[in-house]
Amino acid sequence: MDSTDLVKSISIANLANQRVAVVERVRAALDLLAEAQQLAKAAHLGFPRLVLDESYGCRGRPAVTGEYAVRADAEAAIVRIVDIRGWDYLLSESGLRTFMDAQAREQWNRQIAEGDVPELTAANIEATFAQLYGARGDMFERGVIACFRRLSWDYRTNQPFRFGKRIIVRHLLSQGSLNHRVTDELDDLLRMCYVLDGKPEADHRHGAYYLVSDARQQRHTEAGNDYFHLRWFQNGNGHVTFRRPDLVSQMNLILAKHYPNALASEAR
Fold this sequence. Notes:
The chain is of the alpha+beta class. It has two domains: 3-134, no CATH class; 137-267, no CATH class. Helix content is 55%, strand content 9%. It has ten helices and eight strands. A four-stranded antiparallel sheet has the order 3-8-7-6, covered by helices on one side. A two-stranded antiparallel ribbon has the order 1-2. Strand 7 (228-232) and strand 8 form a beta hairpin. The radius of gyration is 24 Å and the shape is elongated. Residues 264-268 have low confidence and may be disordered.
């Protein structure tokens, strides 16, 4: 499967070409600034001390200051911002996050926040999308296990060896706001239901975060879809009731691969 199959809503070639055009203009602008600075210096005229502050683009990066003798640093800083925003747009609008489990999404969010992203070239985009798409099976099972491990065994409905009819997830709401990490893990469960049901994976833009967010805007305390019903409480916890027992059984088979002793003891 090539990249055009993975990214139907965005033209990778067009985005990469636009990035090249932006970088070319950045270089031309920096050349003109450097030329103006040299002319001003030779004519004993003033010239402002230019500062490029990229702190809004990524954490831990210092501002680039001083004369444009540090032109290479200035160019690299500007291009980094261009690439950061490009990757953020791709991940949000292409549906690529649909293939990611909560761990992969958290890693990409951290890379974008820190400015640690590859150049936004067609080759890098295609390689990244292909790698994530190829790893979707592993991420699928990893997401199931991660969600299972986060369940609290302080609740009777959560069983330490299998998914039951209902599970309780902690900190769905944190100080009145939705917890992205928890909704990402609920998306892992939702993705699992779609796959086990033989249906295309749901786009992340129609996932748990938006499901709960839309319901809360209407002042509801519960929401649901074909696979589970979700209700949340003032303590921030969420109760998830599965609507497809047959899919829950298949989910437990995945757990059996990772916790065979626990399930064997339960069977005994």
